[in-house]
Amino acid sequence: MIKRFLYAFPTLLFIIFIVFLFLHLVPGDPAQVMLGVGASEADITVLREKLGLNRPLIVQFTRYVTGVLRGDLGDSFAYRKGVAQVVLERFPATLELTFAAMILACCIGIPLGVESSLRQHSSFDFLCRVIALVGVSFPVFWLAIQLMYLFAVILHLLPLSGRGGPVYTWNGLTHIILPAVALSSIMLPSTMRLTRSSMLEVLNQEYITVARSKGLREIVVVYKHALKNAVIPVITNIGLQFGMLLGGAFLTEHVFAWPGIGQLTVNAIFRRDFPVVQGVILVTALAFLVLNILVDISYAYFDPRVRHEMVKNA
Amino acid sequence: MKNLRHVTMVISCFVLLGLLFLGSPDPSAAAKVGGTLKIAMYADATSLDPGGANDIPSQKAYNLLYDTLLAFDKNMQLVAHVATAWKPSQESKVWTFTIREGVKFHDGSLLTPEDVAFSYQRILEAPEAASQKKSSIAMIESIEAKGNEAIFKLKYPFAPFPGTTAQIQIVPKKLAKEVGNKSFASKPVGSGPFKFVEWVKDDHITYERNDQYWLKKPNLERVLLRPIPEGTVRAMSLMTGEVDVVDQVSSETIPRLQGAKGVELLATTGLNYYWLGIRQYGPPYNNLKFRQMVYSAVDMDGAIKTIFPNGNAVRAYGAVPPLIWPDDNKFLKDNGIRQDKAKAKKLFEELVSEGVMKQDTKIIVAMPNDPERLKLGEILVTNLKEIGVNAELKVMETGAYIDQAVKGKEPYIYSLFSVPRYLDPDAVFSWLFLSGPNGSTHGAKILGLEQMDPKINEPIEKARVISDQAERSKLYVALQRYLMIDRIYHIPAFYRTVMVGKRTEIQDLYPAPNDLFWLVTSFSNVWLDR
After folding, report:
1. How close B400 comes to chain A (CA, Å)?
2. Residue A205 and residue A227: Cα distance in Å, rounded?
3. Which chain B residues are closer than 8 Å to A26 by Cβ?
4. A25 touches chain B (CB under 8 A)
């Protein structure tokens, strides 16, 4: 497990390098974008010097990496304050939305997948498959607008946009429902489909037949014996899909005016605010790596073989 | 533009009559005090320090907190504000502003000429802070606070100087120096109609009424600014009543909002000017006949109808937006080039036979990726193809587009828009066409006017030092005719209308041509009829 943590560092360094390189290769001078087309060349030169953009790329990169190692992500060009502060002011909102979508996708996707596998080839199974197909086909953006129109404009049941406060408050809870539902559409279909196929495989195993022949109740057979084994590929998928969710959150946040890093990143890209884009990607990559390590740890809970292996190695 | 004004006036009269007959509340009834006005704007501010940001959302947000020396009236004419009077020296090189007494900042301290001088100096001395503002006051050499006057000494005579002062907000010197720029930006203090309460980034900014406001006591108890980037969502927010006012009503949402209950749309002429430019960096683009061909080929009226089916833009014939003098639109319309496919085709054949271009020379039309200009580019390419020109559309991300336009030397047809930094024709012409030490050269550089043309530079520089408007007007009229008819450096496209959506219960709200929010001004004090 320690190895996994150590592997994360070169991965992060590689991400920083790629992002840094690509951002600086993209045409568009941050100083020019910040000051507008009306600014004089002298002002642009002064600002470029101030931002350190006149230095060779390798010098800029070295300074950035040493800064990151000291915990300094640099200063935002547009906001004129520390990137860490700019990102951390918004990151909780993104995490809140992403986890809400993930929980929603799991809470709906896994039971539907189980039921679908138990009623294979039934009309319920067919319906679930159609929903999965539709869910995966519709862009989040389109789905978000439709949800808003139905639940906020026509039915007046839920607020249209904004955060409304932390999720544990009533206002916050009502505000998160629509964006979380829209965002969960990225993960829900694959979770449902994977649970179904994994369950179908497990339900044909001999130990399930043995469990049934022992006279165990069906609910125990399905949810205790079958699902616990079937859920491992689903968990792996959740870890991988987290990245997709974060990517989807950028769009969802834009539509729902959710004050997370999605909106921040979109604006930062247009403003050529390189330090903010780099900071967001770094923090996002870190979150992705940590979650995947947590997913690996969770295997030990679901699979005794992994637990046994870990104990042996320790 | 006049037509638009007339139509707006007629519609307003009918609406007013309708309300009277229906027995609705009289709009001129006594204003109610209190309540929170919720405004949705298209993006969040980046800073509430007027020296720290100059983007439009930030201007909208900090404009509620601060005062300026002069302000605009409903017709965008300059009026006294914190300055009660202003006068130039004989050759317009020294400007003296008398500062109003008794104006207080939100922290209770008095606004003095020293604060005025400091507010300008911090912009002039910190190029990284807000250089777009710096370039509009770059002519200032020094500022002196003397008694109740602020005296501006300029590097060169500059008649339009008062116009620039409506863009520079006054901050308290003592506090800003004490706490530093970063802290000041997080707890901004001004002397404007509203005080800062809270800013949750990308979520909302809250303001409360400044009961001590010197101009008048604001009717609104609180104001809440919410960034909602998506146009459709802003429109839906207005329809559901989640917000009371929305800015930048997008073209596709206009029909829906027009039919929505409890929603009204307000429109006014904007200060923007969109044009097609032909970069002079090489043949055939630097050939006058080529430019005549492009102008004759393009169906600008049809393009505007297609891009703005709801009429939220008007055709431009010159570079000067309708709210800025001189108005020479009629002459430019009557004498400028009109769409004539046969003529365009003939010009193309002549260009080919004269060897200026080949039959298959690729003509690049480069556009940024905003929907309006993208459509304009598509229409232009289609029009050019119709007369046999091998035209191609090249689409670029806006940042890269500007970068290439400013730094590149490639000839192509492009489209940009400008909003004058101060309301004077000097701001229009100097930015777009002046090449010389006394003005920004970017407009001219983008266009490729690297060689100084005395026919352009001389009238601009001459008009700057003349204080008589009629005399200046003559110079600008002649210059604009030279640029648009004789040389065709620009093919004027359109002026976009500023459109604001509001709930019907919001009273005394006027749409501002400069795209800011006019909540408490000399002519208005917004209130909620709830």
Report:
1. 4
2. 12
3. 399-400
4. no
Phi, psi of B22 (to 5 degrees): -80, -10
Q: What is the pLDDT of residues B422-446, one digit of tens each?
A: 889 999 998 899 886 554 457 888 8
Q: Does residue A63 have a pLDDT over 60?
A: yes
72-101 in chain A: CB under 8 A from chain B: 78-81, 86, 89-90, 93
- The ipTM value here is 0.82
Alpha-carbon Rg for chain A in angstroms: 24
Contact A79 B46 (CB under 8 A): yes
* pTM over cut 0.90: no
Task: Single out the residue of B37, B62, B65, B38 nearest to residue B52, CA to CA.
Answer: B62
Please tell me which residue, A57 or B518, carries the higher pLDDT value.
B518
Q: Quickly count: other Cβ atoms within 10 Å of residue A217's Cβ.
A: 11
pLDDT (tens digit per residue) in A234-252: 888 888 888 888 888 888 9
Domains defined along chain A, listed by start: 2-69 (no CATH), 90-313 (1.10.3720.10)
Instruction: For residue B499, give how far its alpha carbon lies from the nearest alpha carbon of chain A (Å).
Output: 21
Give the one of B181, B204, B403 whose C-beta lies nearest to A32's C-beta. Answer: B403
Residue A26 at interface with chain B, using a CB cutoff of 8 Å: yes
pLDDT (0 to 100) of residue A8: 78
For residue A25, the chain B residues in CB contact (below 8 A) are none
Give the span between the Cα atoms of B160 and B163, in whole angstroms.
6
Q: Is B399 within 8 Å of A35 when comparing Cβ atoms?
A: no
d(CA A171, CA A157): 13
Whether the CB-CB separation of B225 and B61 falls below 8 Å is answered with yes
Partner residue facing A153 (CB), from B236, B416, B421: B236
**Closest CB to A38 among B132, B227, B236:** B132
Query: Could you count the other beta carbons within 10 Å of the beta carbon of residue B307?
Result: 22
Mean pLDDT of A80-108: 91
pLDDT at B20 over 70: no
Of the listed ranges A126-130, B15-19, B109-113, the one predicted with least confidence = B15-19
Q: Which of A27, A149, A259 sits opposite B200 (nearest CB)?
A: A259
Residue in chain A nearest B260 by alpha carbon:
A153
Rounded Cα distance between B524 and B522, Å, is 6
Report the alpha-carbon distance of residue B516 to residue A267 in Å, rounded: 20
Residue carrying structure tokens 């919720």: B38
Q: Say if CB A221 and CB A211 are below 8 A apart.
A: yes
With an 8 Å Cβ cutoff, is B197 touching chain A? no
pLDDT digits (tens, 9 = 90+) for B224-265: 999 999 999 999 999 999 999 999 998 889 999 998 999 999
Q: How many other β-carbons are positioned within 10 Å of the β-carbon of residue A57? A: 12
**Which residues on chain B are in Cβ contact (under 8 Å) with A267?**
43-44
Q: For residues B460 and B434, is the Cβ–Cβ distance under 8 A?
A: yes
User: HEC string of A93-123?
Assistant: HHHHHHHHHHHHHHHHHHHHHHHHHHCCCCH
Length of chain B: 530
Of B128, B399, B446, the CB nearest to A46: B128
